[in-house]
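[step 3/7] fold_predict: job queued, chain A
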Amino acid sequence: MRSFFSALFRSRAGLFGFVLVLLFIAGAILAPYLGLSSPTRSSLTSRMVAPTWTGIVSPGAHPLGTDELGRDILSRILYGSHTTLLIATGAVILGGVVGTLLGIVAGYFRGTVDRVLMRVVDIQLALPLMLLALLVVAAVGPSTQNLVIVLALTSWLRYARIIRGQVLALREREFILSAHAIGAGTWRIMLKHLLPNVMTPVLVIATLELARIIIMDAALSFLGLGVQPPNPSWGRMLADGRVYITTAWWIVTFPGLAILFTVLSVNLLGDWLRDYFDPKLRTVR
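[step 4/7] structure written:
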């Protein structure tokens, strides 16, 4: 851990991403305890109030202004981050577990099992993932649980393909051959020997997939197939505020910035993790 954080503090981009990710997580967890107004409470007397720091006299204290229904934007962004974190984390975990296990199975057994699983991956990769997500959500209906499943469905492919390649190399290593020689069972070899040795690429993939899933979640919400009103979501805030972009710029600007900086921070942290764990890329710690 000391070596990890020492290397992290020497990387400006990695440290910047790490700090922003911590702020994102803290905002999502602490939103109910910050004393903010309810993200679903509307007030028509406070419609499209400008942010207080702009100097425009407005009723109430709204640091980031209010939307077309008088709801506080800061409150909706923080509560929306809780929803985004829940959906993105759930999808990454579900997709990671499924993809990693299938990748290990394909790489270890090879033969027919490998060919069938990889053809399934090829077929799904040939489909536009956003179109696939739209079709599935439209068919089963928008809800938090369905979003997690749909986004995981678009995520497991990368895990399976990369982990399969790792396992194909690992299964010929001496420690795997030794496990075979002493009579270790197939599942014991896969779970006790192969799985721990592929966790590093799994962690890196998960970090990078998190950013992609946040974007897809926002896109689905923007199209009306994500989190349903009155629950706040960043993509829905953009969709609702696009009509007022010339008269109330803050309605779409701040949710857009929230998406931008969250995805940027996750990508920066993911790139640093890739460099740190890959001996071919990382510098001297």
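[step 5/7] annotate
The mean pLDDT is 86.
The two ends are 12 Å apart (CA to CA).
exit 0
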